[in-house]
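Amino acid chain:
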Amino acid sequence: MKISKKDLKKIILLEVKNVTQEMAEDIEKVYRDDPSQKDKEMKKMFEKLIDQLDKLDGSIDYLASVFTGEDPASISGRQAFLGKFATAPKSAKQKQE
């Protein structure tokens, strides 16, 4: 299955929108229910957001593997080791050029 860059962007934006919408609902609930628990609940919500972003990162690694043909675990490992300096390996076609 081919996914265009435009479709990939839509998928990612939809995931981010869903996570932020859940957070907004949770924040609203905290303020309504018990303002004295606000800090504790906010910490829980940020932890939940971080967890969701980690899952999104994993999903992006799988989508990237579709485009590169590389193993998603390899992509994730390279990113964990090199951070923002990680780059995709050159494909056979790129190496020939």
Q: What stands out?
A: The two ends are 26 Å apart (CA to CA). The chain has a mean pLDDT of 76. The longest helix spans residues 38-68.
